[in-house]
Inverse folding.
């Protein structure tokens, strides 16, 4: 892993803000307009004003969502709403949550990690990025020079040694605790003992680091650092901009949960079960699984229960649900000879490259509107309520799939993984100045 360092986090002063749950928020990329408004109304110091400031009709180059975020960041520090910890620390971060009746605890380390360009060090991306989100995050970073949301990184540590070292150092101390709107309990401790920090750094250093969530922000941090170097603002390898705030989770952590991302399409209402079966028949074993919501729920349970990447589920506007199992891979190899077998075998790759772009090309899938959900029940309900007229259910990927892709220096298609729950925004902030 690249060098990790303790840091002096900026944190909310509870004497000023009161209840921490009222000023925290999920990461910017899962906040829609309705949630943004609720967070604005919840508390005048809610972190949404920093991570996703509202767009106003009067915005211009001098006064916009980014300049307002920067003003809040400066004002809150000056007014004591935010206070900086007196000593550098690593932060122990636990998330307790329930999923399908089972309770999990995911354990993480909050630290700053030295930036390394992909392909030149020990940091590996696993998912493709898009230019729009990177430009948005870059404008925010230029305006504020701060990290408000930790990225999510993974590292191999089968015995959980690094996390255990930190957990043992804080087990006798009460945590800072907050419960979010989804019922997830977040707990935070501060570790300042130099010998513990040094041991954790030593243990983690030889290990690779995989970006689980936050690819756009990592690439943005690299670009921002390069801009500062070219401008002569950063001349030292120890300057804060050489690092990025990250939550680090062991890949064998029992609380690590990867959910699938199902696709909901609009614009395919003319597609029938017979048409889909005929289009897929050359490459898939196709089974009409059933009709109606109950069949969709059963198929969803089947798809989500395993990480078998050869199966896909489809729901159509007439209420039909179809199970498709890939049986011939030659066509994918013909379409994508530059891709590895590991990449071509991913269910999302099969869906987008073989099903949509090849088998269904005559139905113009590029014109369909797509949205995403992480539970098959949501997809089934969307189809039943005519919010969607074509649904694609995909299985979750495993950690082995992620590692296999990154070892080929490839990236999965967008929306291939969803690490649940998201890391909370508002617990710690990292200033690049």
């Amino acid at each position: 892993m690249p060098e990790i360092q303790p840091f002096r986090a900026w944190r909310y002063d509870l004497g000023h803000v009161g209840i921490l749950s009222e000023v925290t928020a999920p990461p910017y990329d899962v906040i829609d307009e309705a949630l943004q408004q609720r967070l604005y109304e919840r508390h005048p110091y809610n972190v949404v004003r920093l991570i996703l400031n509202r767009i106003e009709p009067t915005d211009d180059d001098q006064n916009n969502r980014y300049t307002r975020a920067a003003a809040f960041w400066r004002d809150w520090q000056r007014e004591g709403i935010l206070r900086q910890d007196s000593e550098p620390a690593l932060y122990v971060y636990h998330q307790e949550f329930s999923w399908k009746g089972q309770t999990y605890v995911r354990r993480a380390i909050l630290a700053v990690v030295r930036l390394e360009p992909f392909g030149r060090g020990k940091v590996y991306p696993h998912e493709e990025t898009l230019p729009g989100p990177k430009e948005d995050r870059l404008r925010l970073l230029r305006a504020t020079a701060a990290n408000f949301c930790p990225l999510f990184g993974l590292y191999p540590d089968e015995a959980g040694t690094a996390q255990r070292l930190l957990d043992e150092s804080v087990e006798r101390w009460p945590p800072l605790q907050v419960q979010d709107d989804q019922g997830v309990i977040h707990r935070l401790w501060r570790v300042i003992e130099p010998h513990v920090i040094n041991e954790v750094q030593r243990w983690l250093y030889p290990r690779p680091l995989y970006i689980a969530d936050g690819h756009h922000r990592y690439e943005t941090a690299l670009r921002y650092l390069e801009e500062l170097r070219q401008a002569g603002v950063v001349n030292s390898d120890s300057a804060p901009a050489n690092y990025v705030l990250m939550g680090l989770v062991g890949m064998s952590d029992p609380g690590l949960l990867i959910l699938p991302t199902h696709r909901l399409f609009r614009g395919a209402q003319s597609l029938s079960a017979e048409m889909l079966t005929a289009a897929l028949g050359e490459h898939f074993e196709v089974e009409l699984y059933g009709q109606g919501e109950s069949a969709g729920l059963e198929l969803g349970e089947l798809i989500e229960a395993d990480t078998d990447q050869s199966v896909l589920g489809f729901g159509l506007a007439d209420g039909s649900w179809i199970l498709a199992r890939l049986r011939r891979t030659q066509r994918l190899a013909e379409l994508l000879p530059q891709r590895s077998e590991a990449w071509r075998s991913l269910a999302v790759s099969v869906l987008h490259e073989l099903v949509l772009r090849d088998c269904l090309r005559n139905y113009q899938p590029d014109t369909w509107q797509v949205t995403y959900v992480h539970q098959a029940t949501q997809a089934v309900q969307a189809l039943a309520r005519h919010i969607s007229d074509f649904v694609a259910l995909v299985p979750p990927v495993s950690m082995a799939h992620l590692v296999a892709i990154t070892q080929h220096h490839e990236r999965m298609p967008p929306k291939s993984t969803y690490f649940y729950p998201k890391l909370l925004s508002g617990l710690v902030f990292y200033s690049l100045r």
